[in-house]
TrEMBL record:
Record EC number: 4.2.1.49
UniProt keyword Acetylation present: no
Residue intervals of the Urocanase Rossmann-like domain: 213-437
Cofactor(s) of this protein: NAD(+)
Pfam assignment, any one: Urocanase_C
UniProt xrefs under InterPro entries: Urocanase-like, Urocanase_C, Urocanase_central_sf, Urocanase_N, Urocanase_Rossmann-like, Urocanase_sf
Stated name of the protein: HutU
Source species of the chain: Mytilus edulis
Region of interest: Disordered: 1-30
GO molecular function: urocanate hydratase activity
Length: 615
């Protein structure tokens, strides 16, 4: 297992010597699936399915130890010993360039520079898995290296179901993750099913192998903060404005970088010294404050200087919010204008949220040894956090939920977040970033659009930056509505400054937000650049994943698939009643007569509803 070729040969036989996980590097928290003896037996039986019968005697005892000690069977014996990174596509063995591009993406997802807990196959988010165990990794790479263009690999929650006959126009890989009947979709049942090897939480881009490091969330957070300032501060000049948040992990680590790009002062709390120092060494956090007095002093200095500056506070976010309240009560100074939270509250009791009453190390012990008490402390901490945020909000702070279930878990803890079960769903005192900030942008057809240069050449990425910026500028010059022009300009600025901002971690990748017109024209321009030799390697783009190899077939697929990808999302928002989405989809139907979307017929006289119900 020392070379890339051996990686693609599948699970080695004979097996390599037993290995323990490396305790000197960050690793995922111990899971607590609370399996019955019968379920433990089934988990072991399920794990052994990947191995030859003559290997079961050795592995059964080993896997039982992993289940007892870590709450899951990761199969550490199969940890790779080669240099895990996104190898250039020409160095990846196989019969199929599209399959080689997928291997490129998988290796990037588990690159130690990119992945949050690579030993446990967690790419980001605390529990966003690329695979459930290392056997799945080896088998998947073996399938991809041998597959032809007449086959499609099908995967279910990390498990490689197999190669199925298809055709060259079909997808090379079809994935589903976490498909569970709603009646069994509780957190407790998920922990059991993950331990049993039945399902896996792949987040958005971990289990689909599309993760490009924190750059993606840098871009999304940049647009979120810019548009939050436009909407709630009435400006995009953010000099001297303070944005406070928490989390410096795989995704949340992007926040200080984004804030600096926006021109504001960011303060990001992080309880893990390792995570904080990683972002500082990376250059995404400018300075570290090790106590509250030092943090407040740095904030006041940066406000006076009106400089773009990022502060990483080594401590708990609850302490920080409460200190802002004290500062106002003692001095009358409101030191923060914008606030959010990016702790992994979708997983609050297994390392996604650390309570203020405990140290980081104390939390990691208690969450496993005394989970009930730990849960109570987490909920108490959430209540304190919300109390402080509420006081600051009453004074002028604009706070939003970042889609991480912070408000949901706070409401479950009994915090005063104004939860209201309305006819249109759950409403909280604070809006989500999608609901209040980014929703109108999505309704215009704009959304994440990323690409990866599988050649691995930085010069290729430079070329794609230039191509994409030029394409967007040409679209503006052809004439677009003002609302769309603003979004294009934000993204042109992002692309023009991308290299200077040093956003690449792992694969040579880039992201921007674009609508259907921009995506299609950029993809076509990339495909032509490969065909004309301006780019040395294939380019993968999308959310669905599309290899642009310079061929006419790839160009045709880009036209069709990108049109579907955007219009499908906008049509859904249109039917939900969003005016921007309706205008966008109507404009798209005018441009493409083969597109037919069911449009809502709006009630003009709303009093009619009351009159009808009163009869």
């Amino acid at each position: 297992m020392s070379s890339l070729k051996e990686v693609c040969d599948g699970i080695p036989d004979p097996l390599p010597p037993r290995r323990q996980r490396d305790e000197t590097v960050p690793h995922a928290p111990v899971r607590t699936p609370d399996l019955t003896p019968a379920e433990q037996r089934l988990a072991l039986q399920n794990a052994l399915r990947y191995f030859l019968p003559n290997q079961h005697e050795v592995l059964a005892h080993e896997f039982a130890d992993e289940l007892r000690n870590y709450g899951h069977i990761y199969m550490y014996r199969l940890l790779p010993t080669f240099d895990m990174r996104a190898y250039p596509i020409d160095e990846i063995p196989g019969r199929n360039r599209q399959a080689a591009a997928i291997i490129h993406m998988i290796l990037n997802n588990l690159d130690p520079r990119v992945a949050q807990f690579p030993q446990e196959l967690v790419t980001y988010g605390g529990n966003g898995q690329a695979f459930s165990n290392w056997a799945q990794f080896w088998i998947t790479l073996s399938y991809l290296s041998e597959m032809s263009e007449e086959q499609t690999l099908v995967m279910y929650s990390g498990h490689p179901m197999g190669l199925f006959p298809s055709n060259p126009a079909a997808p090379r890989l079809v994935i589903t993750n976490g498909m569970v009947i709603p009646n069994y979709s509780s957190r407790e049942m998920y922990e059991k099913m993950f331990a049993l090897g039945n399902t896996m939480y792949g987040q958005m881009t971990a289990g689909s192998f599309c993760y490009i490091g924190p750059q993606g969330i840098v871009h999304g957070t940049t647009l979120t903060v810019l548009n939050a300032a436009r909407r709630h501060l009435g400006t995009t000049d953010m000099r001297g404005k303070v944005f406070v948040t928490s989390g410096l992990g795989g995704m949340s680590g992007a926040q200080p970088k984004a804030a600096t790009i926006c021109g504001c002062i960011s303060v990001t709390a992080e309880v893990s010294k390792e995570a904080l120092e990683k972002r500082h060494n990376q250059g995404w956090v400018a300075t570290i404050a090790n106590n509250l007095d030092e943090c407040i002093s740095k904030i006041r200095h940066a406000r006076r200087q009106k400089e773009a500056f990022s502060i990483g506070y080594h401590g708990n976010i609850v302490d920080l919010w409460e200190r802002f309240v004290e500062e106002y009560e003692n001095t009358g100074d409101l030191l923060v204008e914008l606030g959010s939270d990016q702790t992994s509250c979708h997983n609050p009791y297994l390392g996604g949220y650390y309570p203020v009453q405990l140290t980081y190390d104390e939390s990691r012990i208690m969450m496993h040894e005394d989970p009930i008490r730990f849960k109570n402390l987490v909920q108490e901490s959430l209540r304190r956090q919300v109390t402080a945020i509420n006081k600051l909000s009453d004074l002028g702070l604009y706070f939003w939920d970042y889609g991480n279930a912070f408000l949901l878990e706070a409401s479950r803890a009994g915090a005063d977040v104004g939860r209201d079960e309305s006819a249109t769903g759950t409403l909280f005192r604070y809006p989500s970033y999608v609901q209040d900030i980014m929703g109108d942008i999505f309704s215009l057809g704009f959304g994440p659009f990323r690409w990866v240069c599988t050649s691995g050449c930085p010069s290729d990425l430079d070329t794609t930056d230039e191509i994409s910026a030029n394409v967007l500028e040409d679209i503006i010059n052809e004439g677009v509505p003002e609302t769309i022009k603003q979004q294009y300009n934000d993204n042109i600025r992002w692309i023009r400054e991308a290299k200077t901002n040093k956003l690449v971690v792992g694969s040579q990748a880039r992201i921007l937000y674009s609508d259907q017109v921009g995506r299609t024209k950029i993809a076509t321009a990339f495909n032509n650049a490969v065909k004309d030799g301006k780019l040395k390697g294939e380019v993968i783009n999308g959310g669905f994943g599309l290899v642009l190899d310079g061929s006419q077939d790839a160009g045709d697929r880009a036209q069709k698939m990108l049109a579907w990808d955007v219009s499908n999302g906008v049509a859904r928002r249109c039917w939900s009643g969003n005016n921007n989405a309706e205008e966008t989809i109507c404009r798209t139907m005018d441009q493409n007569k083969s597109l037919k979307v069911t449009l809502p017929n709006h009630v003009q006289d709303l009093d009619l509803l009351d009159r009808a119900l009163q009869e």
